Amino acid sequence: MPSFFRPGRGLRALVLVLTVLVLASAARAPAGQRKLRRVAIILFRGETPSEKGFRDTVNASPDFQVRCRTFNAGQSTERLKAILAALDTTRYDLIYTFGTMATLSAMGKTKQVPIVYNVVQRPIEAGIISSWENSANNVTGASNIVAMESAFRTLVLVLSIRQLGFIYNDRDPASKIQRADIAKIQQKFGFRIFDIPVRDPESIPEAMRRTVAAKLDAVFFPADSLIMANAGTIVSLLNQHKIPSIAIIPEMVTEHGALISLGADYYELGQLAGQNALEVLGGKRPDEVSSKKVRNLHLYINLKTADRLGIDLPLQLLSLSTVIR
Amino acid sequence: MTDTGIFSITATEALLILRGFLPTVMVVAIGALLGKLDGSRHQATLTKLIDYVFLPCLVFSAIHRHPFALNELLQIAVAVTVMVCLSTVAALCLMKDRPGGAGWNHLASIFMSSGNLLLPLAYLLFGSEGLVKGIYFHLCVLLLFHTLGAYLVKGSCDLRSFFRIPFLYPLALGIAAASLPSPGSENLLEMAWLTERGIHIAGLGALPLLLINFGYPLGLIKWSTLRKGLPGAALRIVGGPLLAFAVVYLYRQVGWLSMEQGYDILAFVDRRTTEALLILGASLPSSHHALRMEAGGGLAATEAESATLLVSVLGGMVSVLTVLAIIDVVVFQG
Fold first, then answer.
1. pTM, two decimal places
2. Which pLDDT band holds residue B5 (cuts at 50, 70, 90)?
3. A158 and B127 Cβ atoms separated by less than 8 Å
4. Going from the N-terminus, what domains does chain B have, and what CATH number goes with each?
C-alpha cells in the first residue's frame, strides 16, 4: 500500500483539501461580506435592456452587494408623482432614473441622495447637469444623445424628404429640445417640419389621423417615453399608409417595425450608468463623476418594413446595420 | 429575428448585389442588340441626348443634395490618379501597341467605363451616396483621359476638350447649390421642390440610357478578334481591382480611410462606401471613350482595342460580380 494511504495520513489530506476549499471560496467574497447598498430604480415606461445592463454591472461589483427595488410609473405622470411622494429617500444609497421626466421628478424630491440618470437625450439643456464633466449637483449618469444631423444623414441615404412629421409629447422637455435641434437643420436638408404633438395615449388617434391626411414623406420619432410606449399602434398605422419612420430608440425598429433607427445601444447605456453608480457607491460625489455618452451609435434597419414600403436599401447600409427581418 | 452575423446576412446582401447587377447586364445587352440592329446609326444622337440632357440632370440631382466635402473628392482623385498611372506603366510594359495603334490599345486597358457603367451601378448598389462618389470618380477619369490619355494617343494633352464636356457644369452648379441655404420663402421652396423633382426624374432616366449607350457599340465588334483583346482585358478587369485593393489598403494604413468606428457610424459608413466605390470603379470593363475620341480624330480603332473592350465586358460579368462579393465581405463586414 502506498504510504499516502496509511492510517492518519488520509485524515490530514482531507483537512488539507477542506482548508483549500474554504480559502478558495473566501477569496470570491461572498455576498454577506460585500457591503450592502440599496438602489431605488424609478422607471416611467417599464423595464428596458438598459436596466438589465445597469443591474448586470452593479451586481458584478466585487465590493458591493446591490439590492435594487423597482418602481414603475407605467407611463403615468400621476403615478410617477405618487411614487416619488411616497419614496423614503433616506432608505436608499442611490436612485436610478430612466428618462428626462423621471430624472427631473427625482431631482425635485431629493438634493442629498445621489441620482444616476439613464437614457436622457439632452441632460444639459434639460437642466439635469451643468456640464458633462461636472454636474454641480447630486446627479450623474449616461446619455443617449444623438446628433440630429447624423440622424438626418441616415434618413437622406434612403429617402428624399420634403415634409417630415415630428411626433412628440409636448409635455416632455426632452422632446421639445430635439424638436428645436431639428428645426435648426431643416434648411440645410431642405425639408419642412410638420408638428404632431400628443399629450396622452387618448390624443394619439387624432394625431395619427392628421399625420395620414398630411401625406408626409416620413415621420421622425424622438427619444420620448410616451411615444415609445405607444409605438406599436403608431408605427403599424404609418406602415399601413406607407409612411417611412425613423427613430432614435432602437426598440422602435426591433420590436415595433419602424424603418430605421440611429441610436445608442440601451444595454451599453445601462452598463455606463452602472459604472457611474459604482463610482458613487464607492465614495465619490456625483459631481466628481462625469456623465457618460456611448462610444458609438448603432444603425438598425427593419427589412420587412423596407420591403413593405418599397424602399431599396443601399448595400453598405444593410451590411453595416443590425438587420431585423 | 435580429441578425448581424456574416452567414445570416449574406443571402440578403447577395440578393441586393444581384438586384443591382443583373438589370445592368440586361440593359447593356439590350443596348448591344439595338446597336447591331440599326448598325449604330443612332449612337451619336443617343450620346448627345445623354451628354446634354439626362446626365447633367442626374449629376445636378445627386450633387446638390450632398454636402460638398473636399476631402471626399481628394480621396477619390488621388486614388484614381494612382490607379490610372500604375495601369499606364503596366500597359506600356506588358502590352505592345501594334503599328498604327498609336496608343489606342493602351487606353482600352487603362481606362474603365466610369460614366456609362459606374454611375448606374453605383446608384443601384450604393444609393445616392454611391452615385455622388461615382460622379467624382468619373470626373477624375475624364480629366486623366483628356490629359494622360490624349498624350498617349496624340502626344499632347487636350484640356480644351475636357472643358467642353457638359458634365462639368451641372457638377459645378450642384456643388454651388449644395453650399447655399435652401430658400426661406414658402413659395420659392415649393417651386424649388417642383423643379428638383423634375430634374430628379430626368436624372433617373439617364441610368438606363447610359447602359444602352455602353452596349450600343458592342454589337458591332467582331467576335473573331476576341483573342487579340485578352491581354488588355486581363489587365483591365484583373489588374484594376488588384490595384484598387492595394490603394484601399494603403489608405487604411495611413489613416485616410480609417477603420476606427468612432461615435458616428455614418462617418464609418461613408468611408467604407468610398472604398467600395474605388474598388468597383477599378474593376469595370474598358471605356469606349477611346472609340468616341477616335470618331472625333478620324482614327480607326484597332481590332485589338475593340476586342479588349468586348473581352473586358464579357469577363467583367464574372469579375465584377466576384469583386462585389469581395467588397461586401472585406470592406463592409471586415
1. 0.81
2. very low
3. yes
4. 11-332 (1.20.1530)
